Amino acid sequence: MRAARRSAPGRRRAACGLALVAAIAAAAALAPVLSPAPPLRQDLAAALRGPSHEHPLGTDALGRDVLARLVHGARLSLAVGAAATAAALAMGVVLGATAGAAGGLLDEAIARATDVFLAFPGLLLAIALAAVLGPSARNVAIALAVMGWPVYARLVRAEVRGAASRDDARAAEALGASRVRIAVRHLLPKALPALAVQAAFGVSGAIVAEASLSFLGLGAPPPTPSWGAMLAEGRALLVVAPHLAVAPAAAIGITVLGVQLLGDGLAAWAGRPALR
Amino acid sequence: MARLVLRRGGLALATAVGVLTLVIALLRAIPGDPVDAMLGERATAADRAELRSALGLDRPAWSELAARAAGLARGDLGRSIATGDPVASLLAARYPATLELAAAALAAALAIGVPIGIAAAARPGGRADRASLAFATFAAAMPTFALGPLLLLAFAVEVPWFPVAGRSGPASVVLPALTLGLGMAAVLARQLRAALAAALSRDFARAARARGASRVRLVAGHGLRNAATPAIAVLAVQIGGLLAGAVVTETVFAWPGIGRLLVQAIGARDYPVVQGCALAIALTFVGVSLVADLLQAWVDPRLRAAR
Question: Most buried residue, A230, A269, B44, B100, by CB count within 10 Å?
Fold first, then answer.
């Protein structure tokens, strides 16, 4: 199903994804410039206004500018998504490479732990962890990293095991290279394309999960602008001020769409589907 | 088949024990003292000791695990700190609502995903195929908590066909089920399309066509049975996401299920209820995976031999 996407439409999807992701990243980077007002400034006299010239996306229940909170929320979403994925990637690569290179009992233990984590709904684990650790952006990133590492571990373990019998690994072993050196210099680089594809989907998963936790009140505490928390507020005021829900919902949808299209493009480039 | 049931059942039991261990370990992983967090600074020493013993924090983890497993077997999950009600009866009151939501979402996913998958596979690369890809891409990109409010806005506020919140009659389940089921429908449609298109290009399908089998018979009799195995596998994985997604969806729609109970209990620091909810959701998931695996082996005789 993915082989077909390697053709021109596949490239077009990837380009669309890249454009969307670049636009969101630019909005996050330029947040202070794009904001009509500081994201935390309250103006109760102008609360719950619809879109206007002064506030292009309207104001929330405390009279704060929705556009300002949206672009500042993009910073949080992208930062948590990137940090959680990087941490999950690091954990997964180290554990997977260790398991694949070491073999034996250690390999068995890591592989079974990976299976148990993969068999469990990740979001539920993240909810439980975030509830235990307390609401903060850092704790959300930790919870999401714990939720995310097993996919990378499984992938790297498989790659390392598959590559260990290849000639270059054998030659390095014959030359007296240590197991760690063989794993890092010869086996890991082969896993990079697959890891890049997986990490792209990991980032979109982490962004959704961060917003889910914030929506449930388990994310960064108020008044930090966060898409999930903005949606929760919009849900509560759906009848009075529908624009409050539409803006963050659209932002999340566009971001996830962009990252997934980009991931599809990467998968076509790497010539392999992602484990989703 | 009997050996498979035994093996797979053993694995499910091991996972269940792992889940129970995790649920108990979580409470002990709370930074600081959970008793302080729940009672505040002014509680008396007697209150603290009582709560500590109710939570099982006054004994070693292994003894707590054994006591909990025994309690679970009797259907005893402890009592809510906030209301004093038995956790088991709280769960029993909420479980049917979650089950109803999950079943409705599954039905919605099948009703939307299967026809789209079949239509797309009938002519790979055709208009229906391209449209289904676009649908799947957008549906998969829309998380439940974003889709839910948008559906509410469209079909409960602007056009008041369905209630805005709560569980009151058949109409109230439509929007939550759509919210929860749409992402699953997208994945299912793509998976079914891929598997069905592959099956229809194989020799047995060509032979059936040569014998003059009708298009319907070809797809229904030959294609779907072969495409069902990967589709069931995808469904099983998705049901895990469905249960976790139910936590969010129930919050969006004020649906009185276990997920909402979990979120409320987290807010109230009612840890026995949190543990009970997590356990109920996780064990449901373990059970569903077990059933899905066995169902797969039943549909596809090749899997029975392979394991």
Answer: A230
ipTM of model? 0.76
Chain B residues close to A124, C-beta within 8 Å: 243-244, 247, 278, 281-282
pLDDT in tens, B90-124: 999 999 999 999 999 999 999 999 899 888 887 77
Query: The domain A2-270: what is its CATH number?
Result: 1.10.3720.10
Asked if residue B237 is part of any domain, the answer here is: yes
Nearest CA to CA, how far is B145 from chain A (Å)?
Answer: 7
- Which residue carries 């006591």 as its tokens? B67
- Considering only the beta carbons, identify the residue of B197, B252, B266 that sits closest to A235: B252
- A-chain CB neighbours of B193 within 8 Å are 1
Could you say which DSSP state residue A221 is in?
Answer: P
In a domain, B111, yes or no: yes
Same domain, B160 and B16: no
> Do both B121 and B47 map to the same domain?
no
Position of tokens 């839910």?
B148
- Residue range(s) defining the domain that contains residue B223: 88-306
Contact (CB<8Å) A128/B285 = no
Q: What is the pTM of this model?
A: 0.81
Taking Cα atoms as reference points, which of A215, A202, A217 lies closest to residue A147? A202
